[in-house]
Amino acid sequence: MWNYTDKVKELYTNPKNVGAIADADVVAEVGSIVCGDALKLYLKLDENGIITDAKFETFGCGSAIASSSALTEMVLGKSIEEASKITNQDIVAFLGGLPEEKMHCSVMGHEALSLAVAKYRGEKIPDEIDTEGEIICKCFGVTDALIRKVIRENRLKTVEQVTNYTKAGGACGSCIPRIEDIIEEELAVAPAPEKERGKQPLTNIRRMQLVEETIQNVIRPELQKDGGNIELVDIDGKTVYVALRGSCANCVASNVTLKNLVEIKLREFVEEDIEVAEAK
Amino acid sequence: MERTIYLDNNATTMVAPEVVDAMLPFLTGRYGNPSSIHGFGGRVGKDLDIARDRVAAFLGADHEYEIVFTGTGTESDNTAILGTLFYYRDRRHIVTSRVEHPAVLSLCKKLERDGYGVTYVPVDGAGNLDMEVLRSSITDDTAIVSIMYANNETGVVFPVSEIGALCREKGVPFHVDAVQAAGKIPIRVNDIGCDLLTVSGHKFHAPKGIGVLYVRRGTRIRPVLYGGHQEKGRRPGTENVPGIVGIGKAAELAMGHLSEYDQRVRGMRDRLEKGILARFKNAHLNGNPSMRVPNTTNIGFEFIEGEAILLYLDQKGIAASSGSACSSGSLEPSHVLRAMGVPFTSAHGSIRFSLSRFVTEEDIDYTLSVLPEVVDSLLRISPFWDKEKKEGKPVTL
Fold first, then answer.
1. Among residues 118-147 of chain A, which lie with CB inside 8 Å of chain B?
2. Which residues are registered as beta bridge partners of A245?
């Protein structure tokens, strides 16, 4: 059973602004019945570009209905300019949170809004919804542009997170290597953690946080692909003691793993002179 | 609604009151270890014997020592397959179906990664097994054939006796995952002709945490766990005495209620199913209607999504289940429905209702009375229904 917030429950039980607007100024439709969720957003605007009416129709689970309802409530009374600034994170915040696996529902809401804004302005349809874009996930029709955008906006680091936010890679899984490549490219372009290093020496607390984050978000997912795992045992100055678990524990290449994966990643994301040692 | 209308009995069942009563002494005063020399423990062994006899009778086994108690259905499935592979070291091929429970499928996927060849026998649109593929896939290299008796999602029953005869003819061990058949239809291991058979207590009114693996006398199988002498070394570990006593009592009760499943439960299931199919034009049945266990119906609702239906039903006090992607978190709809070729469009809106003898006619009336409100309110939200309506195809009556 999903752990939905009361707000999500309230909104899927009694969604607001359900239905179509017969004389809508903009209609934006995203998703499809094949994907398992779809949203049709109707907007009515006055002469000043203020959204005076917003309605939706949704095919999808409880959180998809709640996200759609939230979206319509959020845009009502706003100018198209203000509405265009709403992100999927804003929708999540409005709902008081969504389970990780359901993040894609908020992304769908944001996609519909972006499409509606573009249509209203008479712009070229944004890349990530453009069917001309390169489709990475064939099962759910997810383009690389959308994947990149979601990675950047939500600072995603693993394939699992990308799947939770966009569904890409969630069905047959054949596009997972491509998603890994995209994540790697995006991490290289947007080095959020890199800002932390090099500038000034890390405090002990900050170093510990970064080591933990890097192990959790970067190293562990990598090891888990091969049935392995890693445990952070201790941090002493710049020496990080870890224990390899699962299939890594008895692997003859465990020392190689320590140096080539764990140490390289920690040096990349935390500090250049981190040492890694195996806890005995 | 203070009472839950529980229509999710393929997920788990209520522990029958008689089963609770039978177990209670072993959770209180009679806590002895049956392996002990002293009478306080040793006397408990007699109760295990009674339970073993009851389960043997329930499955139609010739000898009580053919019954091995395990922890779960999953453990029995894994033990049957791995234990057989451990014996037939030189055979590297497994035959199973595309619609097995994950307890079998996930293991087979893992074995494939370890270098085993696995044939996943397909099913047709009604969920029937492709017997031609099954027949032709068995070779000299095949270590085991593992096929379920009844499918957990659709309730479709497979021709296990026919497969049993085929396996005997070819000299290949045959394991039947009968978890979803137990208590719903008769299980006779000699009629099936299987070497191994799995059932799980909590699917037929025993508690969770107790499973059975039937091992026909003479079947070549190695243990998966090593330890003490319990279960003749086939499943070491101190016996789950309350669980074993419970499943013994549940087996005895189940035999007495089989005709009730065939008559009364089937009648309620059919009434629910017919009622839904007659009321909603966007509803259709998944699975062969004439080859099913009597308690299960799987209905696909087009244009609306399964998790949303479940959440709305939950608010009405009705517990059911769905093969929708969203309800599982896997993002892909049920592998069973996909193997049957059910289009994504209705696989996302599939609902499984599974009954038990504790369901009443009033429960069915109530469910039928609230479903229109649930389905209609979701259809009103759906962007696809409107489209259909405009094309002159009204889906609701």
1. 139-140
2. A229
